[in-house]
């Protein structure tokens, strides 16, 4: 009954702890949004939308800088370059 823990047992406990901490973080994140939305949402649909989007983060300026310039019809531009 009192045998020492092996590496697999320790790894399983660490994994379980990480999962529990992540689940707890998600719970409190959603709970904070619920507490805010319950007072400010005008309809239930708005409340539900806010709670559904609780895991999303706002965009930052660096997200816009990573945008790649692409043309609408890439196939058409590729064929023009080949013909020339």
From TrEMBL:
Q: Which PANTHER family match?
A: COILED-COIL DOMAIN-CONTAINING PROTEIN 103
Kindly provide the name given to this protein in its UniProt entry.
Answer: Dynein attachment factor N-terminal domain-containing protein
Q: Name one GO biological process term.
A: determination of left/right symmetry
Alphabetical GO CC annotations of the entry are: extracellular region; outer dynein arm
Source organism per UniProt: Bombyx mori
Q: Which Pfam families is this protein grouped with?
A: Dynein_attach_N
Kindly give the InterPro entries that the UniProt entry links to this protein: CC103 (IPR042422), Dynein_attach_N (IPR031733)
Origin superkingdom: Eukaryota
Q: What is the lineage of its organism?
A: Eukaryota, Metazoa, Ecdysozoa, Arthropoda, Hexapoda
Q: Which residues form a coiled coil?
A: none
Residue ranges spanning the membrane: these are: none
Residue ranges occupied by any Dynein attachment factor N-terminal domain in the UniProt entry = 9-73
């Amino acid at each position: 009954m009192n045998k020492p823990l092996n590496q697999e047992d320790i790894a399983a406990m660490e994994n379980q702890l990480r999962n529990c901490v992540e689940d707890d973080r998600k719970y409190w994140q959603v709970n904070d949004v619920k507490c805010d939305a319950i007072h400010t949402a005008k309809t239930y649909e708005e409340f539900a939308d806010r709670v559904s989007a609780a895991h999303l983060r706002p965009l930052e300026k660096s997200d816009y800088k990573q945008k790649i310039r692409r043309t609408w019809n890439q196939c058409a531009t590729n064929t023009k370059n080949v013909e020339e």
